Structures are given as C-alpha cells and as structure tokens.
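task queued by scheduler; priority normal; single chain, no ligands, no partner chains; default sampling; output format set to structure tokens
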Amino acid sequence: MMLRFRIGRWRFSLNVVHVTDVAGVNSILPDGKHILMWDFDEVSLEEVKKALAEVAIKYKLPNIYILNSGLPNHYMAYCFKRVSWQKAVEILAATKHICTTYLRFGVFRGKFTLRITPKDGRRIRLVCVLKSPWPEDVTIDELDSFVRYETLSDWYRKMMPKMPIIKWREDECLKLLSKN
C-alpha cells in the first residue's frame, strides 16, 4: 500500500509492503573483475535463449546457464567469464529483454546480484545451458561475495493490483497537519 500526498513542491510517500528475506550472490570476484549475471521477468524461455545467444556470439562468451526463478517466464542466467565492470555493464545493456530495474540497480550499486535461495517456497532450477566453444575462465569456487537482503514477497505481488495508491489533496494534508 502506498500513501502519497503533496504540499506545495514537496511530495510525501509512505510504502507499506510485505517482504521476505533471501540470500544472493554478487557478480564481483576477489580480483575486482565480475562474472556476467542476467535477470529476465515476463519473457519466454525462447526469447531469453535468443537474446543470450546474440550477446554470446557478439562477445565470444563461454557457456551460459539459464535458470528459472520459480515463476513462469522469469529467468536468470550466469556466464563464468571474467570481465571488467565496464564490459559487464556493456554486455548486459546490450542484452534484449533484460529486466531494466535489475540493470539499473546493479549499475547504481557497482555489482549485480542474483537470488540463490528459495523465495516464498519457489526454488531456482536449471532449465538449459547455451553451449559455447569459448572456455570459461572463472570457477564457481571464486564466487565469494554473498549477501542477505529483503525483496517483495509473492503475497505483495498477488495483492498489488488490488491495492490502490491513495492520493491526498494538498488542502486535506494541510488540515491534517494544522490539527496537530
């Protein structure tokens, strides 16, 4: 639920959301380089494969592992290729259908993060591997940046369309504030 009101040029918002705790792995490696990680929401598996195949060919990437996050048409992918931060951003930004929120938050934070634990009972499962002739140059053992974080729960996603955004008019807000 979101309460929102405005007084002059100031907007005040209060969000009330149901969250769940999960763990994730970050793209950053001990040497400061990054592995490639993608997130796709509401995209078919065929479109994900096609988008990843295009960047794999363009950037000569090794195998790409595509996983389902537990919802239909929600995928994540890993590629064990060591790249600079700038190259990681370039490759992800060149990938069609990538979740723009995931990309934006990753760029803002300086690393990408993908969930590795179940979320509200939804388990992650490997669905396919895009094979490549180019070798991997990172092992899974090199991933050592893990994080616990909160994310919107499935309860919130189910309820979100039913929950209105409540907008208060400025005069209502001023009345409320003058009573206190």
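post-processing summary
- The first strand starts at residue 2 and ends at 7.
- The chain has five helices and ten strands.
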